[in-house]
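The following record pairs a protein chain with its ligand, zinc ion.
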Amino acid sequence: MTTAAPSRTDAFYDRAPYAEGFDIGYPQENLEGEMYKYRCLSCKRLTTDINGRLENHAEDCAYRLLRQAQR
Ligand SMILES: [Zn+2]
């Protein structure tokens, strides 16, 4: 007889793993002539460079400052 706890294979989906640092809710704009490239509307950094991390925005990015003020 085994007393193993039930597996929690669904644990990863209970909440986002990077709920604190992962942030893709910033305003974005499409690069002219680059159909699949987007950048932050405030600091103009590419979404592929930001990679969902608030600290990858420019230090004076309006969105980054706004988000940091909300913490
Ligand atoms: Zn930004």
